[in-house]
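#dry-run=false #mode=assembly
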Amino acid sequence: MASYSPLLLCTLLILLIFSAAAAAVSPAIADSCTAGSPTENSTPLVSFLQRVQSAARASANPKSFDPKSYVDLPLKHDLKVTESAFDDLPRVPGAAVHGVVPYFYMREFLKKYFGKPGDDLVYVEPKDYSPEPEGFLPKVKNHKVRVWALEVHSLWKNLSRRVSDDVKERPDRHTLLPLPEPVIIPGSRFKEVYYWDSYWIVRGLLVSKMYDTAKSIVSNLLWLVDTYGHPLNGARVYYTNRSQPPLLSSMVMEIYTKTGDLEFVKKSLPALLKEHSFWTSGVHKVMIRDLQGRKHSLSRYYAKWNSPRPESATIDEDSASSLPSPDDKKVFYREVASAAETGWDFSSRWMRNSSVITTLSTTLIIPVDLNAYLYKVELDIAFFAKKLGHRHTYENYLKSSKARQSAMRSILWNKEMNQWLDYWLNSDDCQDVHQFEAKNQNANIYVSNFIPMWNWKHASGEDEDRSPILRSFEVSGLIQPAGISTSLLNSGQQWDLPNGWAPLQHMIIEGLSNSGSETGSLLAEKIAVSWIRTNYAAYKTTGAMHEKYNVESCGKVGGGGEYVPQTGFGWSNGVLLALLEEYGWPSEKEIGCH
Ligand SMILES: *[C@@H]1O[C@H](CO)[C@@H](O)[C@H](O)[C@H]1NC(C)=O
Ligand SMILES: *[C@@H]1O[C@H](CO)[C@@H](O)[C@H](O)[C@H]1NC(C)=O
Ligand SMILES: *[C@@H]1O[C@H](CO)[C@@H](O)[C@H](O)[C@H]1NC(C)=O
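#status=ok
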Protein backbone atom coordinates (compact mmCIF):
# COMPACT_ATOMS: atom_id res chain seq x y z
CA MET A 1 0.00 0.00 0.00
CA ALA A 2 2.87 2.31 0.88
CA SER A 3 3.92 2.41 -2.77
CA TYR A 4 0.66 4.06 -3.88
CA SER A 5 0.85 7.83 -4.04
CA PRO A 6 -2.27 9.84 -3.10
CA LEU A 7 -2.55 10.95 -6.71
CA LEU A 8 -2.53 7.40 -7.97
CA LEU A 9 -5.29 6.51 -5.52
CA CYS A 10 -7.17 9.52 -6.71
CA THR A 11 -6.67 8.40 -10.30
CA LEU A 12 -7.89 4.91 -9.50
CA LEU A 13 -10.92 6.36 -7.82
CA ILE A 14 -11.69 8.47 -10.85
CA LEU A 15 -11.31 5.45 -13.10
CA LEU A 16 -13.66 3.48 -10.84
CA ILE A 17 -16.24 6.25 -10.82
CA PHE A 18 -15.90 6.42 -14.55
CA SER A 19 -16.36 2.76 -15.19
CA ALA A 20 -19.52 3.03 -13.10
CA ALA A 21 -20.61 6.03 -15.15
CA ALA A 22 -19.83 4.18 -18.37
CA ALA A 23 -22.02 1.29 -17.28
CA ALA A 24 -24.79 3.74 -16.47
CA VAL A 25 -24.76 5.38 -19.88
CA SER A 26 -24.63 2.22 -21.95
CA PRO A 27 -28.39 2.28 -22.67
CA ALA A 28 -27.68 5.49 -24.55
CA ILE A 29 -25.94 3.42 -27.23
CA ALA A 30 -29.29 1.91 -28.06
CA ASP A 31 -30.47 5.51 -28.16
CA SER A 32 -28.56 6.03 -31.39
CA CYS A 33 -30.46 3.17 -33.02
CA THR A 34 -33.88 4.51 -32.30
CA ALA A 35 -34.92 7.67 -34.01
CA GLY A 36 -37.44 8.44 -31.29
CA SER A 37 -34.94 9.04 -28.51
CA PRO A 38 -36.25 11.50 -25.93
CA THR A 39 -35.77 15.22 -26.50
CA GLU A 40 -34.20 16.74 -23.48
CA ASN A 41 -35.02 20.29 -22.61
CA SER A 42 -32.48 23.07 -22.44
CA THR A 43 -32.34 25.28 -19.37
CA PRO A 44 -35.33 27.64 -18.94
CA LEU A 45 -33.10 30.61 -19.80
CA VAL A 46 -31.87 29.09 -23.05
CA SER A 47 -35.41 28.03 -24.05
CA PHE A 48 -36.65 31.54 -23.41
CA LEU A 49 -33.83 33.20 -25.36
CA GLN A 50 -34.56 30.86 -28.24
CA ARG A 51 -38.15 32.13 -28.24
CA VAL A 52 -36.80 35.69 -28.36
CA GLN A 53 -34.46 34.69 -31.18
CA SER A 54 -37.29 33.25 -33.16
CA ALA A 55 -39.56 36.25 -32.57
CA ALA A 56 -36.75 38.64 -33.45
CA ARG A 57 -36.17 36.90 -36.72
CA ALA A 58 -39.82 37.27 -37.62
CA SER A 59 -39.75 41.01 -36.93
CA ALA A 60 -36.19 42.04 -37.84
CA ASN A 61 -34.32 42.62 -41.04
CA PRO A 62 -33.29 39.08 -42.02
CA LYS A 63 -30.12 40.28 -43.75
CA SER A 64 -28.31 41.30 -40.59
CA PHE A 65 -29.89 38.66 -38.38
CA ASP A 66 -27.45 36.57 -36.32
CA PRO A 67 -29.31 34.02 -34.18
CA LYS A 68 -26.36 33.60 -31.82
CA SER A 69 -26.56 37.19 -30.62
CA TYR A 70 -29.97 36.48 -29.03
CA VAL A 71 -28.92 33.50 -26.91
CA ASP A 72 -25.94 35.57 -25.75
CA LEU A 73 -28.11 38.40 -24.37
CA PRO A 74 -27.54 39.04 -20.65
CA LEU A 75 -30.78 39.70 -18.72
CA LYS A 76 -31.16 42.93 -16.75
CA HIS A 77 -34.03 41.51 -14.70
CA ASP A 78 -35.06 38.09 -13.49
CA LEU A 79 -36.20 35.56 -16.04
CA LYS A 80 -39.84 35.62 -14.81
CA VAL A 81 -40.11 39.40 -15.19
CA THR A 82 -38.44 39.34 -18.60
CA GLU A 83 -40.58 36.47 -19.80
CA SER A 84 -43.83 38.12 -18.85
CA ALA A 85 -42.79 41.38 -20.52
CA PHE A 86 -42.03 39.35 -23.63
CA ASP A 87 -45.38 37.58 -23.52
CA ASP A 88 -47.15 40.93 -23.18
CA LEU A 89 -45.63 42.38 -26.37
CA PRO A 90 -48.21 43.26 -29.04
CA ARG A 91 -48.36 40.81 -31.91
CA VAL A 92 -49.87 41.10 -35.34
CA PRO A 93 -50.92 38.15 -37.49
CA GLY A 94 -48.04 36.77 -39.56
CA ALA A 95 -46.08 33.67 -40.44
CA ALA A 96 -44.90 33.15 -36.84
CA VAL A 97 -46.94 30.76 -34.67
CA HIS A 98 -48.00 33.35 -32.11
CA GLY A 99 -47.99 36.32 -34.43
CA VAL A 100 -45.23 38.79 -35.26
CA VAL A 101 -44.01 41.41 -32.78
CA PRO A 102 -43.73 44.70 -34.72
CA TYR A 103 -40.09 45.73 -35.13
CA PHE A 104 -40.44 48.88 -33.02
CA TYR A 105 -41.73 46.98 -29.97
CA MET A 106 -39.11 44.29 -30.34
CA ARG A 107 -36.34 46.87 -30.44
CA GLU A 108 -37.65 48.66 -27.35
CA PHE A 109 -38.05 45.35 -25.49
CA LEU A 110 -34.48 44.29 -26.28
CA LYS A 111 -33.16 47.67 -25.17
CA LYS A 112 -35.09 47.72 -21.92
CA TYR A 113 -34.61 44.17 -20.73
CA PHE A 114 -31.16 43.10 -21.91
CA GLY A 115 -27.56 44.15 -21.91
CA LYS A 116 -25.58 43.76 -25.12
CA PRO A 117 -24.14 40.38 -26.13
CA GLY A 118 -20.58 40.52 -24.84
CA ASP A 119 -21.41 42.77 -21.86
CA ASP A 120 -20.93 39.83 -19.54
CA LEU A 121 -17.23 39.73 -20.36
CA VAL A 122 -15.14 42.70 -19.34
CA TYR A 123 -11.74 43.85 -20.51
CA VAL A 124 -8.79 42.90 -18.36
CA GLU A 125 -5.17 43.80 -18.99
CA PRO A 126 -3.15 40.57 -19.12
CA LYS A 127 -0.60 40.82 -16.30
CA ASP A 128 2.16 39.07 -18.23
CA TYR A 129 1.83 41.15 -21.40
CA SER A 130 4.69 43.35 -22.44
CA PRO A 131 4.78 45.31 -25.75
CA GLU A 132 8.03 43.61 -26.80
CA PRO A 133 8.87 40.60 -24.65
CA GLU A 134 12.52 39.76 -24.16
CA GLY A 135 13.70 37.19 -26.68
CA PHE A 136 10.61 37.63 -28.88
CA LEU A 137 10.96 35.96 -32.31
CA PRO A 138 14.77 36.05 -32.55
CA LYS A 139 14.74 34.67 -36.08
CA VAL A 140 12.49 37.42 -37.47
CA LYS A 141 15.02 39.96 -38.82
CA ASN A 142 12.95 41.70 -41.48
CA HIS A 143 11.73 45.04 -40.16
CA LYS A 144 8.25 44.97 -41.77
CA VAL A 145 7.60 41.45 -40.57
CA ARG A 146 8.78 42.27 -37.09
CA VAL A 147 6.52 45.32 -36.82
CA TRP A 148 3.58 43.23 -38.00
CA ALA A 149 4.39 40.36 -35.62
CA LEU A 150 4.44 42.82 -32.73
CA GLU A 151 1.03 44.12 -33.80
CA VAL A 152 -0.34 40.59 -33.86
CA HIS A 153 1.27 39.95 -30.48
CA SER A 154 -0.49 43.08 -29.16
CA LEU A 155 -3.85 41.60 -30.22
CA TRP A 156 -3.70 39.35 -27.13
CA LYS A 157 -4.64 42.53 -25.27
CA ASN A 158 -7.62 43.12 -27.55
CA LEU A 159 -8.85 39.59 -27.01
CA SER A 160 -8.27 39.48 -23.26
CA ARG A 161 -11.35 39.40 -20.98
CA ARG A 162 -12.61 38.20 -17.65
CA VAL A 163 -16.11 37.10 -16.73
CA SER A 164 -18.03 40.02 -15.22
CA ASP A 165 -19.02 39.98 -11.56
CA ASP A 166 -22.69 39.92 -12.50
CA VAL A 167 -22.25 36.48 -14.13
CA LYS A 168 -20.79 35.15 -10.89
CA GLU A 169 -23.46 36.80 -8.72
CA ARG A 170 -26.45 35.99 -10.92
CA PRO A 171 -25.56 33.04 -13.15
CA ASP A 172 -29.28 32.54 -13.86
CA ARG A 173 -29.34 35.75 -15.96
CA HIS A 174 -26.48 34.73 -18.26
CA THR A 175 -25.79 31.97 -20.72
CA LEU A 176 -22.10 32.71 -20.20
CA LEU A 177 -20.43 30.29 -17.79
CA PRO A 178 -18.55 31.76 -14.81
CA LEU A 179 -15.00 30.70 -15.73
CA PRO A 180 -12.70 31.39 -12.78
CA GLU A 181 -9.68 32.86 -14.59
CA PRO A 182 -9.03 35.45 -17.31
CA VAL A 183 -9.70 34.31 -20.88
CA ILE A 184 -8.59 34.98 -24.44
CA ILE A 185 -11.51 34.90 -26.85
CA PRO A 186 -11.26 34.08 -30.59
CA GLY A 187 -12.84 37.41 -31.56
CA SER A 188 -15.85 39.07 -33.24
CA ARG A 189 -19.01 36.99 -32.81
CA PHE A 190 -17.10 34.40 -30.82
CA LYS A 191 -17.16 36.22 -27.50
CA GLU A 192 -16.57 33.25 -25.26
CA VAL A 193 -13.85 30.67 -24.79
CA TYR A 194 -13.80 27.84 -27.35
CA TYR A 195 -12.18 24.53 -26.68
CA TRP A 196 -9.97 23.54 -29.58
CA ASP A 197 -9.25 27.17 -30.52
CA SER A 198 -7.53 27.41 -27.15
CA TYR A 199 -4.74 25.07 -28.20
CA TRP A 200 -3.44 27.49 -30.87
CA ILE A 201 -4.08 30.46 -28.63
CA VAL A 202 -1.85 28.75 -26.05
CA ARG A 203 0.80 28.12 -28.72
CA GLY A 204 0.82 31.82 -29.59
CA LEU A 205 0.83 32.95 -25.96
CA LEU A 206 3.89 30.80 -25.34
CA VAL A 207 5.65 32.57 -28.22
CA SER A 208 4.58 35.85 -26.59
CA LYS A 209 6.08 34.60 -23.29
CA MET A 210 2.68 34.93 -21.61
CA TYR A 211 3.01 31.77 -19.57
CA ASP A 212 0.52 32.74 -16.84
CA THR A 213 -2.18 33.61 -19.34
CA ALA A 214 -1.56 30.30 -21.11
CA LYS A 215 -1.95 28.48 -17.80
CA SER A 216 -5.14 30.33 -16.94
CA ILE A 217 -6.64 29.16 -20.24
CA VAL A 218 -5.93 25.57 -19.27
CA SER A 219 -7.20 26.15 -15.70
CA ASN A 220 -10.54 27.30 -17.10
CA LEU A 221 -10.79 24.14 -19.18
CA LEU A 222 -9.94 22.06 -16.10
CA TRP A 223 -12.78 23.84 -14.33
CA LEU A 224 -15.14 22.85 -17.15
CA VAL A 225 -14.04 19.22 -16.86
CA ASP A 226 -14.61 19.35 -13.11
CA THR A 227 -18.04 20.87 -13.55
CA TYR A 228 -19.36 19.05 -16.61
CA GLY A 229 -17.19 15.95 -16.94
CA HIS A 230 -15.50 17.05 -20.17
CA PRO A 231 -14.34 20.27 -21.83
CA LEU A 232 -17.27 21.95 -23.56
CA ASN A 233 -17.46 23.15 -27.16
CA GLY A 234 -17.45 26.63 -25.62
CA ALA A 235 -18.09 28.33 -22.30
CA ARG A 236 -21.86 28.83 -22.64
CA VAL A 237 -24.73 27.00 -20.97
CA TYR A 238 -25.97 25.99 -24.39
CA TYR A 239 -22.72 24.17 -25.20
CA THR A 240 -22.87 21.81 -22.21
CA ASN A 241 -23.73 18.70 -24.21
CA ARG A 242 -20.98 18.75 -26.78
CA SER A 243 -17.24 18.84 -26.68
CA GLN A 244 -14.69 19.61 -29.37
CA PRO A 245 -11.49 17.97 -30.64
CA PRO A 246 -9.58 16.77 -27.55
CA LEU A 247 -6.48 18.94 -27.37
CA LEU A 248 -6.31 19.63 -23.63
CA SER A 249 -3.40 17.24 -23.10
CA SER A 250 -1.58 18.96 -25.96
CA MET A 251 -1.99 22.32 -24.23
CA VAL A 252 -0.62 20.90 -21.00
CA MET A 253 2.26 19.31 -22.92
CA GLU A 254 3.23 22.57 -24.65
CA ILE A 255 3.11 24.50 -21.37
CA TYR A 256 5.12 21.83 -19.60
CA THR A 257 7.72 21.76 -22.37
CA LYS A 258 8.18 25.54 -22.16
CA THR A 259 8.02 25.95 -18.37
CA GLY A 260 8.99 22.58 -16.87
CA ASP A 261 6.18 23.10 -14.35
CA LEU A 262 5.45 19.60 -13.07
CA GLU A 263 2.99 20.85 -10.42
CA PHE A 264 0.87 22.15 -13.26
CA VAL A 265 0.96 18.71 -14.91
CA LYS A 266 -0.02 17.10 -11.62
CA LYS A 267 -2.98 19.42 -11.28
CA SER A 268 -4.11 18.65 -14.86
CA LEU A 269 -3.72 14.89 -15.00
CA PRO A 270 -7.04 13.89 -13.35
CA ALA A 271 -8.95 15.96 -15.92
CA LEU A 272 -7.01 14.36 -18.77
CA LEU A 273 -7.94 10.90 -17.51
CA LYS A 274 -11.56 11.97 -17.20
CA GLU A 275 -11.61 13.34 -20.71
CA HIS A 276 -10.05 10.18 -22.07
CA SER A 277 -12.86 8.15 -20.49
CA PHE A 278 -15.41 10.48 -22.05
CA TRP A 279 -14.12 9.65 -25.55
CA THR A 280 -13.59 5.94 -24.99
CA SER A 281 -16.89 4.92 -23.40
CA GLY A 282 -20.64 5.14 -23.98
CA VAL A 283 -21.81 6.63 -27.24
CA HIS A 284 -18.33 7.77 -28.27
CA LYS A 285 -16.92 4.28 -28.37
CA VAL A 286 -17.28 2.12 -31.49
CA MET A 287 -16.27 -1.55 -31.63
CA ILE A 288 -15.30 -2.91 -35.01
CA ARG A 289 -13.96 -6.25 -36.23
CA ASP A 290 -11.32 -6.23 -38.95
CA LEU A 291 -10.95 -8.70 -41.83
CA GLN A 292 -8.73 -10.96 -39.71
CA GLY A 293 -11.43 -11.14 -37.05
CA ARG A 294 -9.60 -8.92 -34.53
CA LYS A 295 -11.81 -6.60 -32.49
CA HIS A 296 -10.85 -2.93 -32.20
CA SER A 297 -12.16 0.02 -30.26
CA LEU A 298 -12.20 3.47 -31.89
CA SER A 299 -13.97 6.73 -31.13
CA ARG A 300 -16.49 9.00 -32.82
CA TYR A 301 -18.12 12.38 -32.27
CA TYR A 302 -21.60 12.20 -30.76
CA ALA A 303 -23.36 15.16 -29.15
CA LYS A 304 -25.99 14.31 -26.55
CA TRP A 305 -28.45 16.68 -28.09
CA ASN A 306 -31.41 16.22 -30.38
CA SER A 307 -32.89 19.70 -30.67
CA PRO A 308 -31.81 22.67 -32.79
CA ARG A 309 -28.47 24.15 -31.68
CA PRO A 310 -29.59 27.11 -29.53
CA GLU A 311 -27.03 29.45 -31.11
CA SER A 312 -28.34 28.63 -34.60
CA ALA A 313 -31.84 27.41 -33.81
CA THR A 314 -33.65 29.35 -36.50
CA ILE A 315 -31.20 28.04 -39.10
CA ASP A 316 -31.51 24.43 -37.93
CA GLU A 317 -35.31 24.63 -37.86
CA ASP A 318 -35.31 25.93 -41.43
CA SER A 319 -32.97 23.16 -42.51
CA ALA A 320 -35.14 20.53 -40.82
CA SER A 321 -38.36 21.84 -42.32
CA SER A 322 -37.98 19.55 -45.33
CA LEU A 323 -37.91 16.46 -43.10
CA PRO A 324 -41.18 14.60 -42.83
CA SER A 325 -41.35 13.43 -39.21
CA PRO A 326 -40.42 14.70 -35.75
CA ASP A 327 -38.16 11.66 -35.35
CA ASP A 328 -36.26 12.48 -38.52
CA LYS A 329 -35.81 16.02 -37.26
CA LYS A 330 -34.40 14.77 -33.96
CA VAL A 331 -31.89 12.58 -35.75
CA PHE A 332 -30.89 15.51 -37.95
CA TYR A 333 -30.48 17.84 -34.96
CA ARG A 334 -28.17 15.33 -33.33
CA GLU A 335 -26.07 15.09 -36.48
CA VAL A 336 -25.83 18.90 -36.66
CA ALA A 337 -24.76 19.25 -33.01
CA SER A 338 -22.29 16.41 -33.50
CA ALA A 339 -20.83 18.15 -36.55
CA ALA A 340 -20.32 21.18 -34.31
CA GLU A 341 -18.49 18.88 -31.91
CA THR A 342 -16.02 17.90 -34.65
CA GLY A 343 -14.84 21.52 -34.96
CA TRP A 344 -15.50 21.20 -38.73
CA ASP A 345 -18.94 22.77 -38.91
CA PHE A 346 -19.80 22.28 -41.64
CA SER A 347 -18.12 20.18 -44.27
CA SER A 348 -18.97 17.80 -47.11
CA ARG A 349 -16.93 15.38 -45.00
CA TRP A 350 -19.93 14.68 -42.76
CA MET A 351 -22.57 14.65 -45.52
CA ARG A 352 -23.87 11.86 -47.72
CA ASN A 353 -24.71 14.45 -50.34
CA SER A 354 -22.58 17.57 -50.17
CA SER A 355 -25.38 19.81 -51.39
CA VAL A 356 -28.01 18.61 -48.93
CA ILE A 357 -27.45 19.58 -45.28
CA THR A 358 -30.05 17.10 -44.00
CA THR A 359 -27.75 14.28 -45.13
CA LEU A 360 -25.32 15.08 -42.29
CA SER A 361 -24.30 11.73 -40.77
CA THR A 362 -21.63 12.72 -38.31
CA THR A 363 -22.31 10.03 -35.72
CA LEU A 364 -21.98 7.26 -38.31
CA ILE A 365 -18.38 8.19 -39.08
CA ILE A 366 -15.20 7.04 -37.38
CA PRO A 367 -13.06 10.12 -38.02
CA VAL A 368 -9.33 9.93 -38.70
CA ASP A 369 -8.48 13.15 -36.88
CA LEU A 370 -10.39 12.40 -33.67
CA ASN A 371 -8.59 9.09 -33.34
CA ALA A 372 -5.24 10.68 -34.13
CA TYR A 373 -5.87 13.25 -31.37
CA LEU A 374 -6.83 10.50 -28.93
CA TYR A 375 -3.69 8.56 -29.80
CA LYS A 376 -1.76 11.66 -28.79
CA VAL A 377 -3.85 12.04 -25.62
CA GLU A 378 -2.83 8.49 -24.69
CA LEU A 379 0.84 9.17 -25.37
CA ASP A 380 0.68 12.46 -23.47
CA ILE A 381 -0.96 10.86 -20.44
CA ALA A 382 1.63 8.06 -20.49
CA PHE A 383 4.40 10.66 -20.62
CA PHE A 384 2.98 12.69 -17.73
CA ALA A 385 2.27 9.58 -15.64
CA LYS A 386 5.86 8.48 -16.10
CA LYS A 387 7.16 11.90 -15.03
CA LEU A 388 4.96 11.76 -11.96
CA GLY A 389 5.99 8.21 -11.14
CA HIS A 390 2.58 6.61 -11.75
CA ARG A 391 3.78 3.37 -13.22
CA HIS A 392 0.40 1.71 -13.72
CA THR A 393 -1.15 4.68 -15.44
CA TYR A 394 1.94 4.93 -17.62
CA GLU A 395 1.72 1.29 -18.66
CA ASN A 396 -2.05 1.35 -19.21
CA TYR A 397 -2.01 4.39 -21.44
CA LEU A 398 0.98 3.22 -23.41
CA LYS A 399 -0.98 0.03 -24.03
CA SER A 400 -4.07 2.03 -25.07
CA SER A 401 -2.00 4.04 -27.52
CA LYS A 402 -0.61 0.87 -29.10
CA ALA A 403 -4.12 -0.57 -29.37
CA ARG A 404 -5.38 2.59 -31.04
CA GLN A 405 -2.44 2.66 -33.43
CA SER A 406 -3.20 -0.88 -34.47
CA ALA A 407 -6.94 -0.11 -34.78
CA MET A 408 -6.16 2.86 -37.01
CA ARG A 409 -3.89 0.68 -39.16
CA SER A 410 -6.61 -1.94 -39.56
CA ILE A 411 -9.68 0.24 -40.04
CA LEU A 412 -8.62 3.72 -41.20
CA TRP A 413 -5.39 3.16 -43.13
CA ASN A 414 -5.65 2.72 -46.90
CA LYS A 415 -2.54 1.22 -48.39
CA GLU A 416 -3.40 1.96 -52.01
CA MET A 417 -3.88 5.66 -51.29
CA ASN A 418 -1.18 5.85 -48.60
CA GLN A 419 -3.38 7.91 -46.33
CA TRP A 420 -5.88 7.39 -43.54
CA LEU A 421 -9.57 7.52 -44.45
CA ASP A 422 -12.70 8.16 -42.40
CA TYR A 423 -14.73 5.01 -41.97
CA TRP A 424 -18.52 5.11 -42.49
CA LEU A 425 -20.56 2.71 -40.38
CA ASN A 426 -23.52 1.07 -42.03
CA SER A 427 -26.60 3.08 -41.21
CA ASP A 428 -27.85 0.14 -39.21
CA ASP A 429 -26.07 1.29 -36.10
CA CYS A 430 -27.44 -1.11 -33.52
CA GLN A 431 -24.77 -3.78 -33.60
CA ASP A 432 -22.45 -4.23 -30.64
CA VAL A 433 -19.53 -4.91 -32.95
CA HIS A 434 -19.43 -3.64 -36.52
CA GLN A 435 -17.81 -5.63 -39.30
CA PHE A 436 -15.16 -3.80 -41.35
CA GLU A 437 -15.88 -3.52 -45.06
CA ALA A 438 -13.27 -1.92 -47.30
CA LYS A 439 -15.90 -0.10 -49.36
CA ASN A 440 -16.94 1.88 -46.27
CA GLN A 441 -13.76 3.91 -46.19
CA ASN A 442 -14.42 7.40 -47.55
CA ALA A 443 -11.92 7.83 -50.39
CA ASN A 444 -12.50 11.59 -50.76
CA ILE A 445 -9.49 13.75 -49.99
CA TYR A 446 -9.59 15.89 -46.84
CA VAL A 447 -6.72 17.38 -44.83
CA SER A 448 -7.88 15.16 -42.01
CA ASN A 449 -6.62 12.15 -44.01
CA PHE A 450 -3.13 13.42 -43.16
CA ILE A 451 -3.64 14.69 -39.61
CA PRO A 452 -1.99 11.55 -38.13
CA MET A 453 1.28 13.02 -39.48
CA TRP A 454 1.00 15.52 -36.61
CA ASN A 455 1.89 12.70 -34.23
CA TRP A 456 5.22 12.14 -35.99
CA LYS A 457 6.68 14.54 -33.48
CA HIS A 458 5.88 12.16 -30.65
CA ALA A 459 5.84 8.66 -32.07
CA SER A 460 8.75 6.69 -33.41
CA GLY A 461 8.55 5.94 -37.09
CA GLU A 462 9.95 2.41 -36.96
CA ASP A 463 6.74 0.74 -38.00
CA GLU A 464 5.87 2.89 -40.99
CA ASP A 465 7.54 4.04 -44.15
CA ARG A 466 6.76 7.73 -44.27
CA SER A 467 7.90 8.55 -47.78
CA PRO A 468 4.82 7.11 -49.57
CA ILE A 469 2.63 9.18 -47.23
CA LEU A 470 4.61 12.31 -48.07
CA ARG A 471 4.28 11.60 -51.79
CA SER A 472 0.58 10.96 -51.41
CA PHE A 473 0.18 14.30 -49.64
CA GLU A 474 2.25 16.13 -52.26
CA VAL A 475 0.05 14.93 -55.11
CA SER A 476 -3.23 15.10 -53.17
CA GLY A 477 -4.28 18.45 -54.63
CA LEU A 478 -4.60 19.93 -51.16
CA ILE A 479 -1.50 22.11 -51.53
CA GLN A 480 -2.64 25.40 -53.01
CA PRO A 481 -0.80 28.66 -53.76
CA ALA A 482 -1.67 30.20 -50.36
CA GLY A 483 -1.72 27.19 -48.06
CA ILE A 484 -3.48 23.87 -47.64
CA SER A 485 -7.11 23.54 -48.64
CA THR A 486 -9.51 21.73 -46.31
CA SER A 487 -10.82 19.49 -49.10
CA LEU A 488 -11.01 19.24 -52.89
CA LEU A 489 -14.71 19.98 -53.11
CA ASN A 490 -16.25 23.44 -53.13
CA SER A 491 -19.55 22.71 -51.40
CA GLY A 492 -20.21 26.22 -50.10
CA GLN A 493 -19.58 24.93 -46.57
CA GLN A 494 -16.76 26.65 -44.76
CA TRP A 495 -14.70 23.49 -44.00
CA ASP A 496 -14.18 22.70 -47.68
CA LEU A 497 -12.34 24.09 -50.71
CA PRO A 498 -11.26 26.91 -51.10
CA ASN A 499 -10.89 27.61 -47.37
CA GLY A 500 -7.72 27.05 -45.43
CA TRP A 501 -7.76 27.14 -41.63
CA ALA A 502 -4.81 28.05 -39.45
CA PRO A 503 -4.99 24.98 -37.17
CA LEU A 504 -4.95 22.59 -40.10
CA GLN A 505 -1.98 24.36 -41.70
CA HIS A 506 -0.11 24.17 -38.45
CA MET A 507 -0.68 20.49 -37.71
CA ILE A 508 0.32 19.49 -41.23
CA ILE A 509 3.39 21.75 -41.22
CA GLU A 510 4.48 20.31 -37.87
CA GLY A 511 3.90 16.79 -39.14
CA LEU A 512 5.93 17.35 -42.31
CA SER A 513 8.76 18.99 -40.42
CA ASN A 514 8.98 16.00 -38.09
CA SER A 515 8.85 13.45 -40.90
CA GLY A 516 12.59 12.86 -40.63
CA SER A 517 12.98 13.51 -44.36
CA GLU A 518 14.41 16.45 -46.24
CA THR A 519 11.45 16.47 -48.66
CA GLY A 520 9.06 16.76 -45.73
CA SER A 521 10.99 19.60 -44.08
CA LEU A 522 11.25 21.57 -47.30
CA LEU A 523 7.58 21.15 -48.02
CA ALA A 524 6.72 22.24 -44.48
CA GLU A 525 8.72 25.43 -44.87
CA LYS A 526 7.24 26.17 -48.29
CA ILE A 527 3.69 25.90 -46.92
CA ALA A 528 4.56 27.93 -43.83
CA VAL A 529 6.01 30.73 -45.97
CA SER A 530 2.99 30.86 -48.26
CA TRP A 531 0.66 30.96 -45.23
CA ILE A 532 2.65 33.78 -43.60
CA ARG A 533 2.57 35.71 -46.88
CA THR A 534 -1.17 35.42 -47.33
CA ASN A 535 -1.80 36.41 -43.68
CA TYR A 536 0.39 39.46 -44.16
CA ALA A 537 -1.21 40.56 -47.43
CA ALA A 538 -4.74 40.19 -46.03
CA TYR A 539 -3.71 42.03 -42.86
CA LYS A 540 -2.39 44.93 -44.90
CA THR A 541 -5.55 45.25 -47.00
CA THR A 542 -8.14 44.59 -44.25
CA GLY A 543 -6.30 45.60 -41.06
CA ALA A 544 -7.18 42.32 -39.39
CA MET A 545 -6.32 38.69 -38.87
CA HIS A 546 -9.05 36.36 -40.16
CA GLU A 547 -10.55 33.11 -38.93
CA LYS A 548 -9.99 31.48 -42.35
CA TYR A 549 -8.37 32.26 -45.68
CA ASN A 550 -9.07 31.41 -49.30
CA VAL A 551 -5.97 29.42 -50.22
CA GLU A 552 -6.47 29.57 -53.97
CA SER A 553 -4.60 32.85 -54.17
CA CYS A 554 -2.42 34.93 -51.90
CA GLY A 555 -4.07 37.66 -49.82
CA LYS A 556 -7.66 36.39 -50.08
CA VAL A 557 -9.84 35.75 -47.03
CA GLY A 558 -12.27 32.87 -46.67
CA GLY A 559 -16.05 32.78 -47.04
CA GLY A 560 -19.00 30.39 -47.10
CA GLY A 561 -20.79 28.80 -44.18
CA GLU A 562 -23.65 29.91 -41.99
CA TYR A 563 -22.34 33.21 -40.58
CA VAL A 564 -20.38 36.18 -41.92
CA PRO A 565 -16.58 35.72 -41.85
CA GLN A 566 -14.99 36.75 -38.55
CA THR A 567 -11.83 38.62 -37.65
CA GLY A 568 -9.68 38.83 -34.54
CA PHE A 569 -8.63 36.00 -34.52
CA GLY A 570 -7.27 33.80 -31.76
CA TRP A 571 -6.05 30.70 -33.54
CA SER A 572 -4.81 32.51 -36.65
CA ASN A 573 -2.72 34.82 -34.44
CA GLY A 574 -1.37 31.85 -32.50
CA VAL A 575 -0.41 29.89 -35.59
CA LEU A 576 1.25 32.90 -37.21
CA LEU A 577 3.39 33.57 -34.14
CA ALA A 578 4.31 29.89 -33.82
CA LEU A 579 5.32 29.71 -37.49
CA LEU A 580 7.38 32.90 -37.25
CA GLU A 581 9.14 31.50 -34.21
CA GLU A 582 9.94 28.28 -36.03
CA TYR A 583 10.91 29.63 -39.45
CA GLY A 584 11.81 33.28 -38.83
CA TRP A 585 12.07 35.76 -41.70
CA PRO A 586 15.44 36.99 -43.04
CA SER A 587 15.90 40.74 -43.40
CA GLU A 588 16.40 40.74 -47.18
CA LYS A 589 13.41 38.48 -47.96
CA GLU A 590 10.38 40.41 -49.28
CA ILE A 591 7.07 39.88 -47.51
CA GLY A 592 3.59 39.98 -49.08
CA CYS A 593 2.31 38.21 -52.19
CA HIS A 594 4.72 37.79 -55.06
C1 LIG B 1 -27.24 16.98 -21.58
O1 LIG B 1 -26.56 15.91 -20.95
C2 LIG B 1 -26.96 15.71 -19.62
C3 LIG B 1 -26.02 14.68 -19.03
O2 LIG B 1 -25.77 13.64 -19.93
C4 LIG B 1 -28.41 15.29 -19.62
O3 LIG B 1 -28.84 15.07 -18.30
C5 LIG B 1 -29.24 16.41 -20.25
O4 LIG B 1 -30.56 16.06 -20.31
C6 LIG B 1 -28.72 16.72 -21.64
N1 LIG B 1 -29.39 17.88 -22.16
C7 LIG B 1 -29.98 17.92 -23.33
C8 LIG B 1 -30.63 19.21 -23.70
O5 LIG B 1 -30.02 16.98 -24.12
C1 LIG C 1 -7.19 46.81 -30.39
O1 LIG C 1 -7.52 47.62 -29.30
C2 LIG C 1 -7.07 48.96 -29.45
C3 LIG C 1 -7.32 49.67 -28.14
O2 LIG C 1 -8.63 49.46 -27.69
C4 LIG C 1 -7.81 49.61 -30.60
O3 LIG C 1 -7.38 50.92 -30.78
C5 LIG C 1 -7.54 48.80 -31.83
O4 LIG C 1 -8.31 49.30 -32.90
C6 LIG C 1 -7.88 47.34 -31.63
N1 LIG C 1 -7.44 46.64 -32.79
C7 LIG C 1 -8.14 45.69 -33.34
C8 LIG C 1 -7.58 45.09 -34.56
O5 LIG C 1 -9.20 45.31 -32.88
C1 LIG D 1 -27.53 15.43 -54.20
O1 LIG D 1 -28.68 16.19 -54.02
C2 LIG D 1 -29.01 16.98 -55.17
C3 LIG D 1 -30.14 17.93 -54.77
O2 LIG D 1 -31.21 17.21 -54.24
C4 LIG D 1 -29.37 16.06 -56.31
O3 LIG D 1 -29.68 16.81 -57.45
C5 LIG D 1 -28.18 15.16 -56.57
O4 LIG D 1 -28.51 14.22 -57.55
C6 LIG D 1 -27.74 14.45 -55.33
N1 LIG D 1 -26.47 13.77 -55.58
C7 LIG D 1 -26.28 12.50 -55.31
C8 LIG D 1 -24.93 11.96 -55.63
O5 LIG D 1 -27.15 11.79 -54.86
